[in-house]
Amino acid sequence: MAAGRADPDEGRGIAAHLRRSPAAWVLPLGLVRLLPEALTGVTRESLSFLAEDAYDTSAADAHARAVGLVMPPIHTSVERWCDYLVATRFGATPGNAPGRRPASSVA
Description:
By secondary structure, the protein is mostly helical. The protein has 4 helices and no strands. It has helices at 8-17, 29-40, 58-66, 74-87.
């Protein structure tokens, strides 16, 4: 996926995983940045996590391989993250529910 560009297949995959209909359209990142301030009064500064930055991780990737760390496929990580968000009602409930696997586990 290109930085700042939504991948429609990714959205459809998440929707399918959550057994929901996928979004019919995608909002441009610039519009997403403007909407909260216009609708809720949230300042742009508080949305600094919305970034289009990309970083070279090849050195970290090589080190991880050298010490035997295996990165899970991105779709697995995204599905687990979505499951966590749903299970915790997007942070409204604790994330340490009985029987819940830690978000950092790789299986």
